[in-house]
Structure to design on (188 residues):
């Protein structure tokens, strides 16, 4: 049986394209699922339909320590993935005066918004959030330390009540990762 070179090349191209499409899908879409606030009426509808769903409450850590406190939020949109504790992203509005938040809750200078999937940038645009943080147009608060082992939740709030949240590695783990990248070369 003689096989044409064109058939072999076409087969290899189709296999590579299929693999590339699958890889793209799994990287940007497959593992993400919506996150709802605890008490959201839509939550029960999603569960009845058999959809995978996450549930969360937005909390902030009081100055001076103590257990994180739930804060009132609305217009919540969030995503998460079971594949990593740092894939959580959300945007919402906080229904508390900005100055009251600054007086009552712990702020942090160690916040780095993590890039999320491109289809979620209308809600969570890490580049814009980073610029606003650096320019002082927004303030980062400690949401919950150790929300997962080695992971903290950060909540960024604008004076007008717009807010975003994400999970990031604790400072010590980020330092260790950075040291490893210097020794073994940065991951791409």
């Amino acid at each position: 049986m003689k096989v044409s070179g064109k058939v072999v090349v076409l087969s290899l191209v189709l296999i590579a394209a299929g693999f590339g499409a699958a890889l793209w899908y799994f990287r940007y879409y497959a593992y993400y699922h919506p996150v709802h606030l605890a008490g959201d009426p839509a939550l029960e509808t999603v569960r009845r339909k058999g959809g995978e769903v996450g549930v969360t409450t937005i909390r902030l850590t009081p100055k001076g320590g103590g257990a994180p406190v739930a804060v009132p939020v609305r217009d919540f949109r969030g995503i998460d993935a079971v594949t990593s504790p740092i894939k959580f992203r959300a945007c919402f509005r906080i229904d508390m005066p900005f100055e009251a938040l600054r007086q009552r809750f712990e702020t942090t200078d160690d916040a780095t918004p993590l890039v999320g999937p491109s289809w979620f940038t209308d809600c969570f645009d890490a580049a814009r959030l980073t610029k606003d943080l650096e320019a002082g147009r927004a303030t980062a608060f400690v949401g919950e330390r150790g929300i997962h082992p080695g992971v903290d939740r950060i909540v960024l709030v604008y004076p007008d009540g717009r807010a975003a949240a994400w999970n990031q590695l604790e400072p010590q783990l980020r330092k260790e990762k950075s040291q490893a990248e210097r020794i073994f070369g940065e991951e791409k």
